[in-house]
Amino acid sequence: MRKLNSDEINLLNSDLIPFEIFLKTNGLLSDKVSSKYEGINFHIESKQELGGANGVARINSQTRKRDIAILDTAMTDDRLRSNICYHELGHALMGMTSYERADLKEKVLNHIFEIKKKHPKELTESTYTYLSGFSCLEEYLVEKFAQSMQVQCKKINVPKKQNYSCPSICADYSYWSTIDTKYGIFETICDELAGKTFGDLSTTIRAGLNEKYFGTFFDRFDEKEIMTILGNLGQVFQSIMNYAGNSISQYNEYSPYKIKQTLVDTEQLVKNIQPKVQEINSHRRLWWKMIDFL
Predict the structure, then answer these.
(1) What percent of the chain stands above pLDDT 90?
(2) How high is the mean pLDDT of the chain?
(3) Do both 44 and 176 map to the same domain?
(4) Of 84, 58, 90, nearest to 71 (Cα)?
(5) Domain end point (choices 45, 65, 94)
(6) How many CB atoms lie within 10 A of CB 3?
(7) Both 155 and 21 in a single domain?
(8) Whole-prediction pTM
(9) Residue 191 is part of which domain span?
């Protein structure tokens, strides 16, 4: 871990200054958002220090301050650096996994406990698996946020969708994604689910900034149906974590062929799920297109 040098500070400011202007201009820098954003410390770490990741938002174990670490080799790559910066800021501003957001996490866990208690025969996955489903949805949200901020603040276009496969995680399952990390495995599924939940990406991001993102999935859909989808996404997410080296022994049972079938099943579940209250927007825009906040 090291501090940014003067050149790196200038590079990071080229991401942060237009980001702050954008939030202020579009009325997104509320007191709540400001309290999460102010005081974040940025520093540089190696790939080894980051455990193979490109960046991380976390509480510094020594200083107890809010930190965002960025991969050292990414700093001179404008696309990669800004994506990491905005992705980790997304976790900081909207997530429940960064900065020990125990309050938000507790609300989600309470919903999971209550629904599992009502449907013990149908909802048989562990509480942690359903919570991992929300971790999956968080990673989706913050990556979409990062892409959106790159468009708005840096004039960097969202990558075109490409076809990928990852036999070590999901056998011969192939998927189209704008995300070139393994999180791309669930992008298309989450595109459709978030589209049915919020309507468009602008509304999704606003829900995240207002701390209404996670709870809206419970509000909008039949509780048993959305929990089944969350359980499936949780299995996929844990398999990705295992692949990345963050193995949790109880999830080693998820073989690539099982995950492939889980993904296929989840595609169908998301296709069939309908909101409890229909809100049809005849002018719904394609999800991965950007995004008019004005």
Answers:
(1) 77
(2) 89
(3) no
(4) 84
(5) 94
(6) 10
(7) no
(8) 0.89
(9) 102-272
